[in-house]
Amino acid sequence: MSNEVIETAMRRALELALLGPTFGVNPQVGAVVVDGEGQIVAEGYHQGSGSKHAEIVALEALAEKLGGSPIPNDFTLVVTLEPCNHTGKTGPCAEAIVQSGVQKVVFASTDPGENSGGGSATLRAAGIEVTGGVLQAEADEQSRVWLTAKKLGRPFVTLKWASSLDGRAAAADGSSRWISSAASRAETHVLRNQVDAILVGTGTVLADDSELTARRIDGSLYDHQPLRAVLGETPIPAGFRVYNEDAETVFFNTHSIHGALAELHARGVKHVLVEGGPTIASKFIKYGLVDEYLIYLAPKLLGGDMLSIRKIGVENIDEARGLIIKEVRTVGNDLVIRAVDDPATRHAVRAPKTALSKEN
After folding, report:
1. Are 79 and 105 in contact (CB under 8 A)?
2. How far apart are CA 90 and CA 93, in angstroms?
3. Section 258-283 average pLDDT
4. Does residue 54 have a pLDDT over 70?
5. Which of 4, 71, 129, 272 has the CA that lies 20 to 30 A from 234?
6. Is the pLDDT confidence value at 118 over 90?
7. SS3 225
8. Nearest Cα to Cα of residue 112 among 139, 77, 89, 91
9. CA–CA dist 165, 163 (Å, integer)
């Protein structure tokens, strides 16, 4: 079967993967079965924790189509992630594939999990022809949240802020509503709906009475609400909106972002959206804990001292934290930049990682 046919099938599997939920501990995975003529004859995607994995859905759809007949030797299973090799809420996909009778498997991303990885070795040991790394760059980018969380043993961190074009988070009097456009704010709520948790500091809650929920344009709540994580030692009085029943809230009575991330990871949080003010944002940058930056720049000039980012451990221009721009687009009147750290200049100050330790 030609590389072109396999890559076309993998692109379809990547499309299917996006149909699964972005939140939850599991990855988005898509799978298709290709016959000897290069035609896709069955499809599947993972619909969330506890549901059947994409490979199993595709193979079951194929079995129904074949009416109990064995899978022809020239059929190929194409999946976006290396089949898992462990028993969680479902059984190991690698063993299910072996039992299915399929003879060829192609995957894109390698599973980095200590327990879940290694499925390709199990398949090869059973005599199945396995090819990995097909469209891996595209697949790794699409699955960057899950892959990063799996590799690092902590949630993927997206740091988001809105500022004026000159980098101010607020005017001189502290007012900040609204710097960004209505379209940008609506997009932020869509993003909230896609993550597992929102993290802010107590200062943000006290200043804005933040609700930290994911809401549609008409004000109604999305079905999925992220966990609200509030970091800091200042008490939040009763009556603030983070106490309402629209979403769960966890309070971390500490300044340790490492400790908070460790506890969120233990809760099964895969993706954290940091929406706190300049103090918390600067800490995440300083300690090298930002996996992706999402910056909304409004076409406004405010001047003054209310900077979006403050001290991040940079004392001179040679220590500047370089970024790699991944995406630039417009939303409403705002310019949106998605970026990641440039590994060549990533020299974060190392903070203690003991649970809930003090960090300055």
Report:
1. yes
2. 8
3. 94
4. yes
5. 272
6. no
7. coil
8. 139
9. 6
Q: Which residues contact 258 (CB under 8 A, 6 or more apart)?
A: 287, 289, 351, 352, 353, 354, 357, 359
Query: Which tokens in the block code for residue 4?
Result: 């072109």
pLDDT at 349 over 50: no
Residues 6 or more apart in contact with residue 266 via CB below 8 angstroms: none
Segment 83-112, tens digit of pLDDT? 988 666 666 888 889 999 999 999 999 998
Burial degree of 202 (CB within 10 A; 0-12, 13-18, 19+): buried
Max CA separation in the chain (angstroms): 74
Entry pTM: 0.90
Q: What is the DSSP secondary structure assignment for residue 6, as one 8-state letter?
A: H
Q: Which two tokens stand for residue 179?
A: 């710097």
Q: List b or e across 150-160, with b for residues whose CB sees 16 or more CB atoms inside 10 angstroms.
A: beeebbbbbbb
pLDDT at residue 351 is higher than 50? no
Tell me how far apart the alpha carbons of residues 186 and 202 are, in angstroms, rounded to a whole number. 24
**pLDDT for 352:** 46
In this structure, the chain runs to a length of 360
Q: For residue 200, give the nearest of 276, 127, 139 by alpha carbon.
A: 276
Write out the DSSP string of 65-131.
HHTTPPPPTT-EEEEEEPPP-S-SSS--HHHHHHHHT--EEEEEEPP--TTT--HHHHHHHTT-EEE
Residue 140: count of CB within 10 angstroms of its CB: 17
**Token pair belonging to 111:** 């599973």
CA angle 77/82/86 to nearest 5° reads: 110
| 43 catalytically annotated | no
DSSP, res 141? H
Q: Which two tokens stand for residue 263?
A: 């506890």
Contact 94, 119 (CB under 8 A): yes
pLDDT at residue 346 is higher than 80:
no
Two tokens, residue 131 = 């090819």
pLDDT at 89: 60
Catalytic residue among 15, 37, 55, 245: 55
The DSSP secondary structure of 191-210, one letter per residue, reads HHHHSSEEEEEHHHHHHH--
